Amino acid sequence: MNLESRDDSNESLGTGARKPTLPVQVGKIWVGGAHPVVVQSMTNTDTADIDSTVKQVAALWRAGSELVRVTVNNSESAKAIPKIVEKLAMMGIEVPIIGDFHYNGHTLLSEEPACAEMLAKYRINPGNVGFGKKKDTQFAQLIEFAIRYGKPVRIGANWGSLDQSLAARLMDENHLRAQPWDAGRVLREALILSAIDSAERAVELGLARDKIILSAKVSGVQELIAVYRDLSKRSDFALHLGLTEAGIGSKGIVASSAALAVLMQEGIGDTIRISLTPEPGAPRTQEVIVAQELLQTMGLRAFTPMVTACPGCGRTTSEFFQELAKVVQNHVRERMSEWKVSRPGAENMTLAVMGCIVNGPGESRHANIGISLPGTGESPAAPVFIDGEKKVTLRGENIAEEFIGIIDDYVETHYARIVEA
């Protein structure tokens, strides 16, 4: 291909331009339409333990979660919801709380109307909302509560709790095809129909279309991509993305990122959750950070200044540059809770911490602020570049403190302060 025939259109690279979906208001947060992709998380506390749940919701919110889902599985947890929302409000935290219902949601909302009123959204699984003759009745009851209290609903089908009667019917129909589908395709179709048919039934019952979010979760990367591509073509409802049971540690991060990045690059997805199994002792907030970093590295949103850092090689003399990169990333993350209010735009700042002369000066010049630490055989000096120009050279034992100071000064002088009236 010669240069004249090269396609320089955005489409050749993939733009991530969002496919049109209906906008849905969840509390004060908008999902879908032209609104940015929203980060969601879920607690793993016993919801009936009010203090523990409030503490974890607050931690998730401070980490950047814009929606938080909690389990509502018994009367004790349903009774706790109003108190949880009230305590969060007293802390100045108004994050929308989503109630996750399985099997008995219709009963709990009937018995605890305060729970129905205080939740910002209901999550319903069409695979276990009811069985046999009770299914339609109990689904209708949940939708009636949503209509009564003006709440949006996520209808979330899941591979692990698929409507077995629907799956069986589709399998029977598949046997009659001239060219039968493979079993995997039939089950994907059952998952998609479970979500879409339930949504259309909710509309028939009187729930507005702009009160519905859909999800159809599986645990395999390629299956998730296939399901959501199809789901996106066949409906205009807002879509929640997530790889269910993604796994622990790097496996969960890689699998979720691989699946969600492909879909979001194609413009599919309005909310996301990274369903990580936490490492023992690790904070629940990791799933929020991973979701934010995924969106930010794709250029879809900005949450906090991101640090470019080299991996290290035989040219680097120590682990100091790695330690500095971690210190810098932790510092800007901690300061963002303040900066996002008083210094809007600071989240777009780019930083570089490099370990030797090979790529150090070049990468540093590309960042708003960059430092090139000395490698093997280099002069024990660390030039600092600000907006492409070398401004100062740091030496000695206080490089970390001085570099952090340069970052803070840059934020103070380059991003306008918002002064409350």
Describe, in plain words, how this protein is organized in 3D.
The longest helix has 23 residues, at 320-342. The chain contains 13 helices and 17 strands. Helix 3 packs across helix 5 (134-149) and helix 8 packs parallel to helix 9 (249-265). It has an 8-stranded parallel β-barrel, surrounded by 5 helices. It has helices at 50-63, 75-90, 105-111, 113-118, 134-149, 164-175, 183-204, 221-234, 249-265, 286-297, 320-342, 360-366, 399-414; strands spanning 24-26, 29-31, 38-42, 67-71, 97-101, 121-124, 153-158, 212-217, 238-241, 247-248, 271-272, 276-277, 306-309, 350-354, 369-372, 382-386, 389-394. With 421 residues, the chain is an alpha/beta fold. Strand 1 (24-26) and strand 2 form a beta hairpin. 43% of the residues lie in helices and 17% in strands. The radius of gyration is 25 Å and the shape is elongated. [4Fe-4S] cluster binds at residues 310, 313, 356, 363. Pathway: Isoprenoid biosynthesis; isopentenyl diphosphate biosynthesis via DXP pathway; isopentenyl diphosphate from 1-deoxy-D-xylulose 5-phosphate: step 5/6. Its EC number is 1.17.7.3. Belongs to the IspG family. Residues 307-408 form the IspG C-terminal domain.
